[in-house]
């Protein structure tokens, strides 16, 4: 992680349609929906309301009345690695899905309508990292950034950045910018003149049981306290707190094993 700017500024509301290619929503599919809701409600003070049910039971998480994330329930027979998945904005999900396929990616779900909320698809890049595509209608996506419990950044952890960054550039119109000052293989993806996501190439350090994957960073007022609270709630710390140029970061997992990061932004 090298740069994690709030997409609407500190403590900002997002009412406008997201620039194509921008992560506009994060969603998690789990086995125990009720238990997962209880965990994140206690951790982030989220409340929940029903969302579109096209792929099964699904709820939207709200913070101060603003939608910030979604959680759905997997069918009992689906045993997939659990992970927070970013949805990248598109003005035409069918066209984007077609471009994803032409660019070497796959589309596993959709495109399909999510009631009146919008139109969606779920795909993966050539290295296998899963992402969503969202064409907004009534639901524009995450509508709050900045406060604790809101998504702050999305980062792809993969083998190397060159070919994968080219894929996201071609499929979503994002610009890639190598971060030479990082001292390792890192690229920022830019949309609308600003960084919106990162790609971290880690080579053979990528865990074999994980494969390439996206990581969502959620804002926290104090990552040490938040990590301790998470542990009390049944989660675990995957990687200890570390200092970055953007603030203090800790990698964690919820009780079902879905990994994410907590970010205490530098003020």
Automatic annotation (TrEMBL):
SUPFAM superfamilies to which the protein is assigned, alphabetical: Glyoxalase/Bleomycin resistance protein/Dihydroxybiphenyl dioxygenase
Cited CDD domains: SgaA_N_like
Domain of life: Bacteria
Organism whose genome encodes this protein: Streptomyces ziwulingensis
The organism's taxonomic lineage, starting at the top: Bacteria, Bacillati, Actinomycetota, Actinomycetes, Kitasatosporales
Domain VOC stretches: 150-265
Record protein name field: VOC family protein
